[in-house]
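Fig. S4 source data, part A: sequence.
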Amino acid sequence: MPKVKLFAKFREIAGTSEVGVEGKNLKEVLENLCNKFPKLRETFFEGDKLRDFVQIMVNGKNARGNLDFQVSEEDLVAIFPPVSGG
């Protein structure tokens, strides 16, 4: 199953930094992740739409705009809030 790494606020909400989650595409992975950690749903989504600030990388490649992005058993899905500095 794909491995999901959560960063910053998302890690705090879930109480873990890494978890295996079933899914053949990002939409399924996110749905199953939110089923495991229901508080993430309200953070990730506004209704059925992924919030603009949620950043998603699959094996280091930006996959943010494509929830149909296919994932495999060996993939690493990284989900993090925007990074800012000053």
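Fig. S4 source data, part B ends here. The first helix runs from residue 8 to 14.
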